[in-house]
């Protein structure tokens, strides 16, 4: 596994497994696309975004991006909400052992 698949914030241990699963899944899908979702998610995590389990589903939270998060979310995540929602569902299932890795 390359460094691209690893959580870029080793200091944030509570959700490191979730971020590693999320980034590695999306890396396979679109890492070659400079405007793809992988780069967006990697950037959010580098800046301290968190993943939380909410009602059985993973959700991205602001984390260290508290002030900037609403604007960044509107620009980078909301336009990709369908793809992101599907990715979060896939990763949630994978982490819960419901699909093959």
Task: Summarize this structure as a short list of keywords or feature phrases.
single chain, 101 residues, two-stranded antiparallel ribbon, 2 strands, globular
End-to-end span in angstroms?
14 Å
Q: How large a portion of the residues is in β-strands, by DSSP E?
A: 5-15%
Largest sheet: 2 strands, antiparallel
Q: Could you name the ranges where pLDDT drops below 50 across 5 or more consecutive residues?
A: none
Q: How many beta strands in the DSSP annotation? A: 2
Radius of gyration: 13 Å
Structural class: mainly alpha
**Total domains:** 1
What overall form do the CA principal axes indicate? globular
Helix-strand string: HHEEHH
Strand order of the largest sheet: 1-2
Number of helices: 4
Mean pLDDT, rounded to whole units? 91
What does it look like?
49% of the residues lie in helices and 10% in strands. The chain has four helices and two strands, in the order H-H-E-E-H-H. The radius of gyration is 13 Å and the shape is globular.
């Amino acid at each position: 596994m390359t460094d691209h698949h690893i959580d870029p914030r080793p200091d944030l241990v509570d959700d490191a497994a979730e971020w590693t699963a999320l980034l590695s899944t999306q890396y396979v899908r679109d890492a070659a696309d400079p405007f793809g979702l992988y780069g967006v998610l990697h950037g959010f995590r580098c800046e301290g975004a968190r993943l939380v389990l909410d009602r059985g589903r993973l959700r991205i939270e602001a984390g260290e991006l508290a002030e900037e998060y609403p604007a960044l979310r509107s620009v980078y995540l909301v336009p990709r909400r369908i793809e992101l929602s599907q990715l979060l569902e896939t990763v949630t299932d994978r982490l819960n052992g419901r699909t093959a890795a």
